[in-house]
Structure formats: structure tokens, C-alpha cells
Amino acid sequence: MAKSIAALAIILPCYLLGAEPSAFGAGDLNNPNPYGLTSTEAVLLETKKNLNKVVVKSNNQANEVESLRQRVDGLQTIIESISTSSHENKLKIKSLLDESSLKSQSNVEYDKRISKTIEDNSNAIVVNAKEIEKINLLIIEISKIVDSINESYVSKNEFNSLVNDVNKFKDLVAKELKAKEKQPSKQSTYEGMTNGEVETKAKELYDQKSYSESLKYYKYLIDKKYKPARSHYMAGEIEYYKKNYAEAIAYFKKSASLYSKADYMPTLMLHTAISMDETGDKKNAVNFYDAVISQYPNSDSAKTAKNRLSKTK
């Protein structure tokens, strides 16, 4: 419509110019202040004015439309910029969220590892506490056994009880006494011999398993207080192999009380335990077996003690 109005604005002036002008300018529609207009000319002038107004208004509207278009283009550019910026922000936000998620997962994994470590340490502490408790109980039990051994080993009551067992061998002792009365006196038997020579002879008879003869020599040495700890030990060994267990225990106990660090102590304690075992004193026998194992773990006596102990318990 704006184009039609503009064309009309161009055609009408040309038509009007074609009319015959007045000699004095009457009827000149192009005059700024036209005069002498006919009614037709007046209508044309009014129409021209209206058309001019329409053209001006149309031009103004076109300018406004162009301005609006430019503003729309500008807004479109701004919107596109905002859209681009928004997309970039979304990407940044997504990246931050992803990073945050990774950190969160990392923190969760880290927390899990810490929790697992704490749990493992707690379990280890509980296990160690139980092991320590077992060790403490074992120490207490060992202490009791040691105390029991010490008490049984040096107790006068136990010693007297063991001596009383000799009554079971009265007949045997009586026979040995009678045999002893028939033999020459000690003075004549050992006359001219040193204590060392008597010991050598006693050991020689022991090695030959002439236990009764060997015992005479060791008793002589005991009376002379010559190497009393070893002499009592050897007398105990002789009684042990003769299965006179009560007498053997008495000799062993005396020997240990005189010298408890002798090299023959593992054997002495083992044979004491076996002698007790054979006389029915199982409780003290077990204590002595345990003592041999704990004090002389690498000895042959300890191996024998373990075997005997397994059969006793």
C-alpha cells in the first residue's frame, strides 16, 4: 500500500502541471500559497496535501519499520550472543558439575578406604588383644607350674612323703643290709684308695651295670662328702635303673638341692618325673615333664618328656 501511495504522489503532480496555468499564477497548485483555485483545483490541492501527509507518514512509518528492523536485528544479535554465552555457561556448568561429581566420587572412595583401614586396624587391635590375653593367661599358667615345681621340689612335706614310700621296700632294704653285713668293712674295701679313685671305680661298675656294687662306692663318697651333688645324682640313677623309684627320687632331690645348675639336670628332672609317674604321683610327674620341656626345650630329655606327657594326660 505504501508503494501505491508513493506512485500516486509522483503521478498527480505531473497531471496537475499539465493544466493550463493562469496568466497571473491563479490555479497554480505548486505555489506555496495558491489562489484563484476552482473547486476542482481546491479539491486537488486538498488531496495533494492529504497525499503529502500520507507520504510523509508512510515515509516515517517506513523509517520506523527500518529502525525497528535494525533494532530487531540488534536484538537478534544480542539474543544470539546471549544464546551462545548461555550455551557456553551450560558447558562450563556441566564441566563444573562433572568435576564436582568426580571429586565427590573421589572423596567417597577416599572415605571408604579410610573406613576400611580403620575397620582393619580395629579388627587387628581386637585380634592382638585376644592374643595378648592368651599370652598373659599362658604366662600365669606357666608361673603356676613353676611355683608348683619349686614347691614340690623343695617342700619338706613332699620330701617326707617320698621318704615314706621307702616303707614299700623294707624287705628289699633288709636283704641288702644283710648282704652288706657279710661283706668286708668300708675301711678294708676302700683302704688305700683316694676319693677320686673310689669315684672312678664307682663309675666303672656303673658302666658295667653292676649297680649294687657301684652304689656301695657312691654311698661311701656321700659319707665322705666328696662331690656330694654328683654322688647323690649317680646313686639316684642306680636306684632309678633298679626301679627303686622312691629311693631314686630322694637322691635326685638331694642332688638338685646341692647344685641345681649341673650339666646332668635335664636327665635328673626327667628321671624324677618318670619315677613320680611310676609311683602314681601323676600330678607332680606332669609338672616335672613340663619343667623339662620349658627349661631344656632342645634336649633329648625334653623329647622324651613330651612323649611321656602325651601318654600321661
Characterize the overall form.
rod-shaped
Number of helical segments with 4 or more residues: 12
User: How is the main sheet built?
Assistant: none
- Class from secondary-structure proportions: mainly alpha
Beta-strand residue fraction? under 5%
Amino- and carboxy-terminal Cα gap: 127 Å
SSE topology:
Layout: H1 2-17, H2 39-154, H3 156-164, H4 170-182, H5 186-189, H6 195-207, H7 211-223, H8 228-241, H9 245-258, H10 265-278, H11 282-295, H12 300-312
Textual characterization of the structure:
This protein is 81% helix and 0% strand. It is mostly helical. The model is unreliable at 2-23 (pLDDT under 50).
Features:
single chain, 12 helices, 81% helix, disordered N terminus, mainly alpha
Overview in brief:
This protein has 313 residues and is an all-alpha fold. Helix content is 81%, strand content 0%.
